[in-house]
């Protein structure tokens, strides 16, 4: 008997699966991993079938699955397993974890449907009788009229088209004149028909006539489904043949959105045709051996900046493809998908799909299904692409593996790199993490033998590493007595580049004009009204802004605390640096690249493109400019306020500073011109700065590892944080106290519990925040403790949003 019940995961913050019955009309093969539309409370939701269920206890309460959404399961067994692991490891609700793996559903849209009540009908008559008075009543009349028109759905999509319609509908609902419910609407797209052979292996070719056999052959040859027109062409048959095959149950067809192909990459891009040098070849041949072994293996590719890691990646992908496997390349940010995507596309053509969160839903859905169908065998993408539905996965590459951008800061709070390793394990694939400055975690894993270490110790063609000079700002001030936003040394170095006609980059990791506004009379500094953080001055917009919640206000004349007019801007941001340089070098072409000047991918590319073409002399930017890109003519990189991160209450502060400086140093002198880096700091003797200047990764690792061991931080202990937050401080305190009691018993099991203490950002978006840090060398204990907390919160009905669990947190802020 076919299974009659299914466990469905729904994207709700509840930690259980939901049981539904499977109606007989739904084909029962291939149900696991399928997306389904199910009734939930008083609406329809999209969930994924995670398992079959036993006969449920409360039979009469079980509802039916309404509809299956895709012709094939969206999630493969391995992906389903990966989603379950995410849920377990990161203590995230199963529904939300699996939801993170699913493709977007651009053709379904949730809207409110309004219905007229009796009092509403009366009110409508009244309005018509006496005529509406004022704009609000006019809008109300239009809305009521629409809702009255029988036979048609009247939805929020329609109220949005009426001027003042949405607000009017809200008022009418409150007055009991309208009721509403959620409905799912199907959006119409231009679609194309896709055809797939059913049960590819099982049905025999013998019983088929000649034309049908050609269809089967064409579909099998393509390795997956085909668009109808393409199939007709390849099999040399007419539509009728396909229709007959469908009726006979040999093929399935479905509609997919059709979007004109657009190529975001410059079509005239010609990839460099490099022959691997000895170090690159050695690394590649090891990776080949792992691929040949055909089982899980993790490797760390530690290669200095400019050592040609990309070339090794490309050759490794080629090796994986040659074995009939697929490959996945992860990069830490969207801007780098362009860069990496361009290289991979140039080498492998249309078999490449690019996946990242900034793609419009429709385009992302198309790419996703292209991958799922096996049309695309290589995926380049950001964090969430770790879930790309590639089958027969042979190789996962994680570029710049140390980047904290791989950590998702929403539920499920997974780490893309660690998830990649787990996925490779599930798939029996090879995972290679690449970096010039590996995270402490990964390098420790390489030391302990968990990962195999591959090294590229020299730059290609033995180009020298850039010369790094540390500028002691105390010294600079003593010598020049100038209170300029950049040191005299940097100013002169820029002048020299302008003279020589080469380019310079100035890196400053702060947006805005000044960091905050201080009252010299009472010492108060202007804080955000919603957050315990200083407001940043933005000169071009003439206002103070909170970089956390978006709060903004005019710059006050006087201090709000003491009413004196001694307000003073402290610290220099990117905007101020740019202004200063324009002032110093009026003839130079200067541009700024940060989130204030570029908002879109196109703007970003435009500025970088202009810089690459030499149309800009000096580029000022935040860390956006520090990564990945290759500029031949940059001979100077200046780092302003290099030590900014060191003051943060974050155990990764030194590591982040070291990484940033090394990455930046890697930007200079990548072409044939030698490069120089100037690093400005007030702490020239700090080991992170000293060792970054020497570009001594191993030295830094040893020193930092020593501190981490002593202070019980990762990678030498498992770490999790629990954040408790609420707008009412009493709640936050009460819940923290309660969780303290829950966590207490774990003390004797070898887990250190720190807190509850005020979180480093003790107030954010009007919420008060307290924090626990849990540390233990035994990961199992950590899992148990967190599970106990969650169980307690559920039993006590503490809202899910009030307690945030973060396993392996990237930052403790
Ligand atoms: P990394 O990512 O390690 O910092 P890239 O992969 O960006 O370095 O390579 C740096 C530069 O070296 C690129 O311009 C690339 O084309 C070039 N390159 C890579 N391999 C070779 C090689 N074997 N011979 C010459 N140039 C190479
Ligand atoms: Zn704020």
Secondary structure elements and their pairing?
Layout: E1 5-9, E2 18-21, E3 35-40, E4 43-52, E5 63-64, E6 67-68, H1 77-89, H2 94-99, E7 108-116, H3 118-130, H4 134-148, H5 156-159, H6 165-174, E8 178-186, E9 191-197, H7 210-221, E10 226-227, H8 228-235, H9 239-247, E11 251-257, H10 278-293, E12 297-303, H11 309-322, E13 326-330, H12 334-348, E14 352-355, H13 361-373, E15 378-381, E16 393-399, H14 416-427, E17 430-435, H15 440-447, E18 452-456, E19 467-472, H16 473-480, H17 488-500, E20 503-508, E21 516-519, E22 536-538, E23 543-545, E24 552-553, E25 567-570, H18 574-584, E26 590-593, H19 601-612, E27 618-621, E28 634-640, H20 653-667, E29 676-681, H21 687-693, H22 697-710, E30 718-726, H23 729-743, E31 752-764, E32 767-776, H24 779-795, E33 803-807
Parallel strand pairs: 2-5, 12-17, 12-18, 13-15, 13-16, 14-15, 16-17, 19-29, 20-27, 20-28, 26-27, 28-29
Antiparallel strand pairs: 1-2, 1-4, 3-4, 3-6, 7-8, 9-10, 9-11, 21-25, 22-23, 23-24, 30-32, 30-33, 31-32
Helix pairs in contact: 1-14, 3-4, 4-6, 7-8, 10-11, 20-21, 21-22
The chain binds adenosine-5'-diphosphate and zinc ion (ZN).
